[in-house]
Amino acid sequence: MARVTEKGFSGAIGNYVFYTMNGKNYVRSKPGKRNKKQGAKVNPLNTVFGTISKYGSKMIMQMKDRFLFRFGRETYNNFRGWMRNLYAVHKDDAVWELSVKNSGMCRLNAAVDLRDLINTDITIEDCGNGKLKITLAEMIPRINIKAPLRTIKVNIKLVVVTSPFKDDVHQYNLCTEQYSFDYNNDPLPATSLEFNTSGGTGDIAVLAMALEYQTSDTGNGFMNKDLKWLPAAAIAMGRLK
Question: How remote is the C-alpha of 136 from its chain's centroid?
Fold first, then answer.
């Protein structure tokens, strides 16, 4: 029921609501009741978003401390959005191959794009039983990789996180492997890194990659921490055999 005040009507009269805001009087229609149909189907997009929010976010949390820069809100949102899009397309596939080519790339450090700094093919072989083999094609560091001045070594870091995407005793597994080499014109043969993820058949796996640089002025074993030289990206998502 509405009431009369010094400033006019306040409250509801029939299907209208009178109110005052910032010294001005307004009227709007009274909102109707929302009738939720019993047994109505859940919007699939809401289901996908909820699944990624619950399980994908925890995968990101497992991974974030493996990089030399801090994950901010933009990184979390972009990462989750990339995972959500892929999961929406492939969640019902009988086979969802863990593939760089089919996954696209999600930039994790907004200050630099990994694709601008490295030019080499990356392939993934799912060997079963939670084992992966990730192969970097042959390359010449000074030709295939862009680096800051006075770079003497490059480190390629690969991070894999797996999750059953359901409440289970073996929730999340994380593996990190690194490939370091001198930054020069000497050709490097194709190199394979093997991961024993401990993940189970059907688990979701996400692979991320980062480049790190050691320069002559950072000190032995220390990496350049300038954000514009810390490229990192999520490069593949799929389901383990």
Answer: 21
User: Which residues span the domain enclosing 173?
Assistant: 44-239
**Per-residue pLDDT tens for 20-78?**
665 666 666 666 555 555 555 655 556 898 999 999 999 999 999 999 999 999 999 99
pTM of the model: 0.80
Task: Give the contacts of 61 (CB within 8 A, at least 6 positions apart).
Answer: none
* Interval 73-89: pLDDT, tens: 999 999 999 999 999 99
One domain for residues 48 and 26: no
Please tell me the total count of domains within the chain. 2
